[in-house]
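fyi for ur records
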Amino acid sequence: MTRLARRVPVVFAAVAATAVVATAATAATAATLAAEESADPGSEVNVAGPVATEKFVSVNDALDALREKYSGFAGASNDLQTMTTTVRWKGTVPNELRKLERSGLNGITVTALPAAYSQEAINLAADAAIHAPGAEGTPDRSGLIVEVTESAVARLRRSAISHDVKQAIAAAEPQLETIPVTIRQAEPTRPAIAKPVAQ
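which gave:
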């Protein structure tokens, strides 16, 4: 197992293909779902009960097992409204995941889509990024989004920041020197993306 092995990142949202990736363990996943399900009755995410929560946890467990067994996992998102899970995978999709696509799991429809970079590669690039309090993969895992502070943007042009970030990634992880990097200024009203933490 690599030094950056993690539990399966799964995002729970009312709309599929949510951009942000969470790295919660299965227990935390269940708590997140439970919190969303107890939202205001008029909210879009208030569409499933405890049974649906358990179903998504079982899908998360199945994906976790695949991540431990095979390389290439690049993230997943769950849609409570449509009861679907979308999985991103770099390279050859394991037969077990194809089987989940064909038959689903506990009423959850599973779809596997290609990714240019695995979650491990995204994490390595994010760890190497400079000027960046936060970084994450793009929703389709085709590159890296680097979130920088307003002060960094004030001191440096975005092109200069992008150049510095790419150089830092290339120096630390030469195999990722061509990963596309998008610079985004952090909104003052919300905290910057948290960098992945090795577990």
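The two ends are 11 Å apart (CA to CA). thats all i got for now
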